[in-house]
Amino acid sequence: MPAPGSHEFTVRDSQTVYAGAILALRTDEVTMPGGTTARREVVEKHGAVAVVARNDAGEIALLRQYRHPIGRRLLELPAGLLDGGPEETPVQAAQRELAEEAGLAATSWRTLVDLDSSPGFTDEAVRVFLAEGLRAVDTGEQLHEEADLVLTWRSLDEAVAAVFTGEIVNAIAVAGILATAVADRGASALRAPDAAWTDRPRRFDTRG
């Protein structure tokens, strides 16, 4: 048996169980250490982007949005799927979502943090940007849950406090808010908006 950390987890067989508009479910038969195999269920999804949009007063834009699986409205960052076609870059998708959901555009964009949402069962990954130099733009027509969005502004300190009181529980918002607070301390330089993204999911995008 190879030493821990050196085994190659190869896929012997893969079957699609379900393929829908925003996700697919497949089962993989994966080789395990010792020569056995195990079945792993994998949810494939588009990648996603989110934006910590900060105005000149230091406030960040938060959206109160209904989320049906949770059954209530959550405070979240402007965000959306990388479903704008193969030519759309992550930062372009973030610019599109910020305009569509919050009616905002920004002149400064930096990569804040990359997230693998729940790597135990899904390849979904999210890139969170920090956007500054904001101005208002037309949101265009909003449909479904987006027609019910409410835009609010919180100072970064208020947003951090809301994370720790449990008011803000959306994982992407929690990560983006806390990452912004750490970045403001100057602990590390933020990456360019087109920085390499190792775990950006692409398998669902290639399905016919």
Automatic annotation (TrEMBL):
<dbReference type="Pfam" id="PF00293">
    <property type="entry name" value="NUDIX"/>
</dbReference>
<dbReference type="InterPro" id="IPR000086">
    <property type="entry name" value="NUDIX_hydrolase_dom"/>
</dbReference>
<dbReference type="GO" id="GO:0016787">
    <property type="term" value="F:hydrolase activity"/>
</dbReference>
<feature type="domain" description="Nudix hydrolase">
    <location>
        <begin position="44"/>
        <end position="176"/>
    </location>
</feature>
<dbReference type="InterPro" id="IPR015797">
    <property type="entry name" value="NUDIX_hydrolase-like_dom_sf"/>
</dbReference>
<protein>
    <submittedName>
        <fullName>NUDIX hydrolase</fullName>
    </submittedName>
</protein>
<keyword id="KW-0378">Hydrolase</keyword>
